[in-house]
Amino acid sequence: MWLTARVLEQHLFAYHFLRGSPEAVEAALDAYRNEDGGYGHALEPDLRGPVSQPLHTAHALRVLDAIGRCGGQRVERVCRYLTSVSTPDGAVPAILPGQRGYPTAPFVPVVDDPPSDLLATGPVVGLLHRNEVWHAWLFRATDFCWQAVESLEKSHPYEVQAAVTFLDSAPDRPRAEAAADRLGRLVREQRLAALDPDRLDAFPVASGYAPGEHHFPHDFARSPDSLARAWFTDDEMTRSLDHLAAGQEEDGGWPVRWRRWAPAPALEARSLVTIEALCTLRAYGRFVG
To answer: Pick from 182, 274, 181, 260: which is nearest to 227 by CA?
Structure first.
């Protein structure tokens, strides 16, 4: 972390594991905030450049949620930004056309009239509900997420993760549990989760993903209280967590499994992956720290 991580991740790591302050994390995060209330400046490593993007904003909310600061005027500004960039159905696209002209991962499409996307909207709506934020933007965005999740017939791991973030905090708990049960069956039927790390050839990588970019039970159920935890047996989750723990490399970090298209994004993503791995292992009681 001290060798290659950004200042933001260094402070986030210190907050999680070294009794660092949430104020330091907030101060570092502010460097990525724009006047429109959104976030840019490569906060999400695969999108370079200064312009605000919904994916950057979702990343910012994850940071604020992690430190217990997802509320107040800061989040009010975020909701105003989300309102300003929403499509007619009230949700947000993954990438706005303003990204064009700045370095972007080659596998991230930039189009002129992007549609609303569960990948971008689900995590934002879920985190806002999790923190009991109430804003007019949430009403139609929540309806969009319900419709998107409940109509999924074929999906891919990142979209499923976005759906789980929404369902884990959606206010209508019986509906969320029913939707999660259906989604879990879809994940198993379509073999989106590699249930046995020793037999990865039995679990195809999703179309468009990098070679070897498998997703495991712990990638969907980040903590034992996630609705996605019920999708997997105890043995499957144990194998998954063992595989995650064994993935730590000599320098203490975890590898990036997706396509690395440039040196800086790869280094930045690695620090994020490492913090995520440690937080997941701690949530399951694999270590105390």
So the answer is: 181
Instruction: Name the nearest CA neighbour of 215 among 230, 228, 225.
Output: 228
8-state DSSP, 36: T
Q: What is the pLDDT of residues 63-122, one digit of tens each?
A: 999 999 999 999 999 999 999 999 999 999 999 999 999 999 988 899 999 999 999 999
**Residue-range domain boundaries for the chain:** 32-150
Q: Of 143, 183, 177, 138, which Cα lies nearest the Cα of 161?
A: 183
Q: Find the helix or strand (DSSP H, E) in which 48 lies.
A: none
Q: Cα–Cα distance between 241 and 284 in angstroms, integer? A: 8
Q: Is 0.85 surpassed by the pTM of this model?
A: yes
Question: Which are the contacts of 59, defined by CB distance < 8 A and separation ≥ 6?
Answer: 39, 43, 44
- Provide φ and ψ at 127, rounded to 5°: -70, -35
**Measured distance CA(277)–CA(247) in Å, rounded:** 9
Label residue 137 exposed, middle or buried (CB < 10 Å: 0-12, 13-18, 19+).
Answer: buried
Q: Which residues contact 227 (CB under 8 A, 6 or more apart)?
A: 164, 167, 168, 176, 177, 180
